[in-house]
Design brief:
Rossmann fold, 11-stranded mixed β-sheet
């Protein structure tokens, strides 16, 4: 299967998906957040993963991002649709709106954000952190369904699990961030290193805490807005999957020419562990 869905807060299952099986995937980084649900949706085979696990067991800092992305790589996934709850940092991006972000700011502090280790150095480009083909697919699918969607936006990812202070929220606005969340990083970076296309459908739940005339952010507020919009999100994902074309993308070759370690000196154990990701570059050396 080439399509994966990673769903976040308030989105723990995919109705309409014909479930074939639930599988546990072993990775060098331990277990993914939950069992991966394998099934068919929109006429295509997909793999579905609940980022926080069903019942929401993991805070953003404790999600095993490396295991999640590596598991999808082992299953042959080439395209990941990520669904995330976010706060708005702009007046015109309102709670209930959808955003398809095109940029990221990493404000996390405690997360491992790479598969590479001592003995194998590489530097992957993140200038454009989301797959443009997939972003355009989400945007065009939303238009087909008449779902209002902001076509661009800079997503700032904070460590959490606490919400930001008002001073931080105002700082992020001055930086040019449009939405704020806690889970797209290191997810997007790891997907790029795994040569998997990655795009996010961001569901706006609140105005963070910068907006003086709005209530402060609460979990209840987020879940209430998510509950109202999750059906639209599922409909949009289904249409995206129906519209996906079986074609390669430059994301699927993102490790080309990124290695700086002399191949003769590269750590063979690291190469062996990462063979599902970089085998095509080192097996022929």
């Amino acid at each position: 299967m080439e399509i994966g869905i990673i769903a976040g807060s308030g989105f723990y299952r995919m109705e309409g998906m014909a479930v074939k099986e639930k599988i546990k995937v072993d990775t060098p980084y331990g277990s993914p957040s939950s069992e991966i649900v394998i099934g068919k949706l929109g006429g295509k085979e997909i793999a579905f993963l609940s980022r926080h696990a069903e019942g929401h067991l993991f805070i953003p800092s404790h999600i095993n991002y490396r295991a999640n992305i590596f598991a999808f790589k082992l299953l042959g996934v080439k395209k990941i649709f990520s669904v995330s709850a976010v706060g708005s940092l702009r007046e015109d991006i309102k709670p209930g709106d959808f955003v398809v972000p095109d940029q990221l700011i990493d404000f996390t502090k405690n997360r491992i954000n790479t598969f590479f280790e001592p003995g194998l150095a590489a530097h992957v480009s993140m200038a454009f952190p989301f797959c443009e083909k997939m972003r355009n697919l989400v945007i065009s699918s939303a238009k087909e369904l008449g779902i209002k969607t902001h076509e661009r936006g800079t997503y700032i990812c904070i460590e959490g699990p606490q919400f930001s202070t008002r001073a931080e929220s105002n700082l992020f606005r001055k930086w040019g961030a449009d939405i704020i969340g806690m889970t797209n990083l290191p997810e997007a970076k790891l997907a790029r290193e795994a040569e998997i296309c990655y795009a996010t459908l961001a569901l706006v739940t609140d105005y963070d805490c910068w907006h003086e005339s709005e209530e402060k952010v609460t979990v209840e507020m987020i879940l209430n807005v998510m509950a109202k919009n999750v059906e639209n999100a599922k409909s949009l994902l289904k249409r995206c999957i129906e519209n996906v074309k079986n074609e390669d993308c430059e994301c699927n070759n993102s490790l080309k020419d990124v290695f700086v370690t002399n191949p003769s000196l590269a750590n063979k154990d690291v190469i062996k562990k990462l063979r599902p990701i970089l085998g095509k570059y080192f097996d022929k050396k």
